[in-house]
Amino acid sequence: MLAGFGVLAGCSAPSPGVRQAADWKSPDFKEPSAKEEEAPPVSTTSAPALTVPAAPTLTERAADLVISNQFTETWVPVRRWCKATGMAEPSWLVSLSRPTFELRSTNGNFVFRPGVQVAEWDGVEVHLGFGPQLIDRQPYLHHLDLTKTVIPLLSGARLHCTGSPPVVVLDPGHGGQDAGAGSALSRCWEKQFTLDWALRLQHLLATNGWQVYLTRTDDREMPLSNRVAFAEERKADLFVSLHFNSAGENLEQAGLETYCLTPEGMPSALTRGYGDDPGRSFPNNAFDAQNLQLAFRVHRNLLAVNGHVDRGVRRARFLGVLRNQQRPAILIEGGYLSNKREARLISEPAYRQKLAEAVARGLLE
Fold first, then answer.
1. What integer pLDDT is reported at residue 161 of this predicted model?
2. Torsion-angle region of residue 49: left (phi > 0), alpha (psi -120 to 50) or beta?
3. pTM (2 decimals)?
4. Rounded to whole angstroms, how far apart are CA atoms 190 and 184?
5. What are the structural domains of the chain?
6. Does position 168 have pLDDT exceeding 80, yes or no?
7. Which of 81, 203, 231, 268 could form a disulfide with 169 if both were Cys (CB 3.0 to 4.6 A apart)?
8. What is the pLDDT of residue 166?
9. Full strand arrangement of the beta sheet holding 167-172
10. Which of 159-168, 184-193, 240-249 has the weakest average pLDDT?
11. Would you call 43 exposed, middle or buried from its count of C-beta atoms within 10 A (0-12, 13-18, 19+)?
């Protein structure tokens, strides 16, 4: 057992005055002012970015054609786009009760349905910005979904760290008076489980030669802006925030979610009641493609642990811990503490070890 894992021993209730879920998941979360959002990071040194090697010629042409004069439409006819890029035309899966189309590539298959914003990439849910359309029995995709979702997934590009060894910052959600979600089965809190998960993951990555930093290594509260500055100061290649979910009184909600920042121009899959201006852009939007690729690699590995209870790879714009990251960054919700079955699993050290191993596999791919 790694040093520091005794944090869960006893799992007593937090001291009086503790706040639950005071970060982005809470009704108490406040949008930072424009002045706060534009404040420069603590360190002005540019962080080493992850770079994606040149994609296959077909994929480069696919991206170019979406933004070229040949495809100026907001809604792009998929068959014509495939023909122009040399891809096989989408298959109509006639065995299903509603119109369903599949784009096939050597890197995976993308399945989508007209009018439905939830698509699938190799069987894993991905939330689109816009529901595809069916016009004259022909499928159309929004050009932003093509450039920001479909093409990054079809490219199959690997993420490569410029630093050696790679540097990753793990962010155990919550801490101190900010306890996060409470377990439905015990007097344990999200902040305890996320720290234990992060410590286990740190050990696995360090064993594989990575340089790993944790935004907190004990039970202390840390503002979201400080977590961003922490990654900047350490010139991180990657940022991974670890959380567990809660659905309040909905005791049936279950499953895994992995988040990255919403690309400019697209609506978010989740707003939590906060304003969602598609026209806004944040520093982390420079890594839209890498964010999505990283999210899928990690999410797919996590699903193998929880029995494929999949709530998808999603995008949200109000995640303060992601918006100003100048590196690929994701936020993982490792299950619902409000669901008794998942709370029981999360409470088990062996299960948290499996979650750590799954994230490590995704990062090491």
1. 72
2. beta
3. 0.84
4. 11
5. 20-50+159-364 (3.40.630.40), 57-155 (3.30.457.10)
6. yes
7. 231
8. 94
9. 91-92, 101-105, 108-112, 118-121, 124-127, 310-316, 256-261, 329-336, 238-245, 167-172, 211-214
10. 159-168
11. middle
Q: Which three-class secondary structure string do you get for the chain?
A: CCCCHHHHCCCCCCCCCCECCCCCCCCCCCCCCHHHHCCCCCCCCCCCCEECCCCCHHHHHHHHHHHCHHHCCCEEEHHHHHHHHCCCCCEECCCCCCCCEEEEECCEEEEECCCCCEEEECCEEEECCCCCEEECCEEEEEHHHHHHHHHHHHHCCCCEECCCCCEEEEEECCECCECCCECCCCCCEHHHHHHHHHHHHHHHHHHCCCEEEECCCCCCCCCHHHHHHHHHHCCCCEEEEEEEECCCCCCCCCCEEEEEECCCCCCCCECCCCCCCCCCCCHHHHHHHHHHHHHHHHHHHHHHHHCCCEEEEEEECCCHHHHCCCCCEEEEEEEECCCHHHHHHHCCHHHHHHHHHHHHHHHHC
| pLDDT for the residue 72 | 56
CA 14, 252, 18: angle at the middle one, nearest 5? Answer: 15
Q: Which are the contacts of 15, defined by CB distance < 8 A and separation ≥ 6?
A: none
Could you report the per-residue pLDDT of 257-276, keeping only the tens digit for each? 999 999 999 999 999 888 99
Assign 22 a pLDDT band (cuts: 50, 70, 90): very low
Burial of 314 (0-12, 13-18, 19+ CB in 10 A): buried
